Amino acid sequence: MSAEQPKPNSQDRNSAPAASQMWGGRFARGPAAIMEKINASIGFDKRLADQDIAGSKAHAAMLARQGIITQADADAIRDGLDRVKEEIDSGAFTFKVELEDIHMNVEARLAELIGEPAKRLHTGRSRNDQVATDFKLWVRDALDRADQGLKALQAALIDLAEKHTDTVMPGFTHLQAAQPVSFGHHLLAYVEMFGRDRGRLRDARARLNECPLGSAALAGTPYPIDRFMTAEALGFDRPTANSLDAVSDRDFALEYLAAASICGMHLSRFAEEIVLWCSAQFRFIRLTDAFTTGSSIMPQKKNPDAAELVRAKAGRVIGSLNSLLVAMKGLPLAYSKDMQEDKEPVFEADDTLALCIAAMEGMVRDMQPNVPALREATDRGFLNATDLADWLVRELNIPFREAHHITGRAVKAAEDKRVGLTALTLEELQAIEPRITESVFPALSIEASLDSRRSFGGASPVRVREAVAAARERFL
Ligand code: ARG
């Protein structure tokens, strides 16, 4: 039977299903069909196949080295597991729901292929430490995948920022035009956010990297196993220190989901900006046909669907974190079957995050900033008001609070005239503050305003050019 579509009733109704070969010693008959259905995880945990096989190979090699099984058995197990892997990779493997999960599917097929030695593989381990090990290996790869994806996205952002260090645009607070910034500076803000996301992934990886294998069911094992050997073989820094904790810990999955959720939130914020920027109201960027769709009724439409979907899909990742937190929060030590529900949220988050990161990189590479529209937008909303206040402080030694007040009156005067600050005459400005001179006007140009913000981390093109180089150095 295929694991994708388990039949509601997998056994002939008239004959009692057989007890499990794996654990059915004290069971007279097999599970009810609905029990089998709720219990089986093979439909999703088949994604752990590679990790399960790697874990079993490391375990078998260790058992032989420690004299717990013979080298001949370990060799047979290793070769058999390679054949199982080939079958899985080629699609020839038949996953069986009645074998519950990936661990028992692999072991049962191994037994079919090599017989007796396969039955010695499960010495000194349990599915509890086995699944914790497999899942850690999987999450470790997921952390590395997300890191690589974000690095590529950062590269796309840095490339675009480099072309637009001098492109001026309005910076916003409260989505109200605030002060001019460089478009490159705006993009580099996201480079920082994704850089912190990568830092969180790295932190999670470092904490994850202890090997649960050999913790067995919950208490360790009487066999003289070498947990340091298996830990090293699987690329872990060391074995976990407490067997109870090792089989019941899912912090590593939660940390991955938390880091992924924060990253999803960042991707969503950027997606939201792309949606705004593409609108006729902003016209800040254009996306080509490659990243837009049309409307079936409104011929003028070019919709930024990919950005909208990234914005929505972040919710799935955040939902996955929530699912697992709720699943874990009531569990006593050690393993409980609830923990089988840890995998789907992580798989879902990984699929979603990879797709969203790739779509975002595609959009950044596709995006064409509308330089004239960005510049023109800085003419609305008195973006140089702070510059007038700063000029009053600098040139006339007026205290900033007072300068702020004088500038407010100038903005009001310009608003009444329906013009920008630079379109006020000197006489009009002097009616508000008599000491203002002609030399105020150059300081009020948008370009001067942008150029003046030269503090470290500021929006001035001089700083942004340095920031582009520094970002390449730090992140790529
Ligand atoms: N499929 C199980 C899981 O994913 C494997 C561990 C089962 N352990 C057990 N004691 N039933 O959690």
UniProtKB/TrEMBL annotation:
Transmembrane region positions?
Answer: none
Pathway it works in: Amino-acid biosynthesis; L-arginine biosynthesis; L-arginine from L-ornithine and carbamoyl phosphate: step 3/3
Domain of life the protein comes from: Bacteria
Q: Which residues form a coiled coil?
A: none
Matching entries from Gene3D superfamilies are given as: Fumarase/aspartase (C-terminal domain) (1.10.40.30), Fumarase/aspartase (Central domain) (1.20.200.10), Fumarase/aspartase (N-terminal domain) (1.10.275.10)
Give the enzyme class. Answer: lyase
Please state the span of the N-terminal signal peptide per the UniProt entry: none
Full protein name: Argininosuccinate lyase
- Organism (species): Azospirillum brasilense
Q: What is the lineage of its organism?
A: Bacteria, Pseudomonadati, Pseudomonadota, Alphaproteobacteria, Rhodospirillales
